[in-house]
Amino acid sequence: MEARKTHLRHMAGSAVGDLLKPSRGLRDDIVRAGGTPKDHAKQNKLMLKDLQKANKAKKEDMQKPAPAPFKMKQFEDVPSKLQTRRPSVSNTPFSSSTPVLVTESRPSTASSTSSRGSGKNFININASKARESPTPRTPRTPDLKQTERKTKMGEIPKYLVDRKMEWATKERERLKKLEEQKIPPGMMVMPEQERLETLKFLEQNRDTILSDMGRFPVVIETTSMKRRKAELDEKLRETEAAVEVFSRGEVLVNRREYDARTARAAT
Q1: Which residues, 6+ apart, have CB-to-CB distance to 165 below 8 Å?
Q2: What are the start and end residues of every segment in region (Disordered) (predicted)?
């Protein structure tokens, strides 16, 4: 309890001191806390002195003469080959700057020397010869013979028609093979002619059933008539289902049953 009172008294005293003498910044806070703030000006001066010393040492190193290139003792008196004087090229009779005259036929040395001394202007002579010589004409290309058309304008050639028909046949065969691959084993596609005949028979049978059902009275009282009406309804549903099946493009039938039925019909 006594320690708490002492702590509160110190806190109150420090608060009053802060009010009477407020802080003037971070450095003042460090001094009040018993520390010593850094002297940044002194540190900057020391850093500048170090930089000056480094620059001075660098300049002294640059002003020092470069060391002599290393050479073995046995070759100290031997001069460098690069320092030897080469013979001048200007002493040759013809330098690279001497103009060279190109003519149609290469003259000999004696003739070229005499022509150079005669003072003739070979440039003008060559130009006049070029003007006098006839200009070669490029041969005209012969006119290409126009090929005769075997078909009329707008008519498709026969080979294109044949090729299209061949492509269509191959495409039908390809699609047929794909469809055959989809057929389950033991089944086959009913021939188109037989499918159409069966469909026609089923439609006629459906019309007959509808005609028979139309003869019934509105109110059916007897049991036999009710039974007959139910039989016709069932038969009509089966016939309509068969018509729907045979109306498709392909009808799958059992191969064994189809072969047996075909054999019985043939006998």
Answers
A1: none
A2: 1-24, 51-148
**CA-to-CA separations, 159 to 42, 53, 155, 165, 172, in angstroms, rounded:** 105, 99, 12, 10, 20
- Residue 202's CB: how many other CB atoms inside 10 A? 20
CA angle, corner 154, sides to 149 and 158, nearest 5? 65
As a whole number of angstroms, the distance between CA 168 and CA 175 comes to 11
Letter for the amino acid at 261? R
pLDDT in tens, 145-196: 556 667 777 788 888 899 999 999 999 999 888 877 777 888 888 888 988 9
Model-wide pTM > 0.70: no
Distance separating alpha carbons of residues 46 and 234, to the nearest angstrom: 118
> Alpha helices, DSSP H only, in the chain?
2-20, 26-32, 40-63, 109-118, 122-132, 158-182, 192-213, 223-246, 255-266
3 state SS for 15-61: HHHHHHCCCCCHHHHHHHCCCCCCCHHHHHHHHHHHHHHHHHHHHHH
Which residues on neighbouring strands pair with residue 254, listed in sequence order?
187
Question: pLDDT for 107-130, tens place per residue?
Answer: 444 444 444 556 788 888 888 888
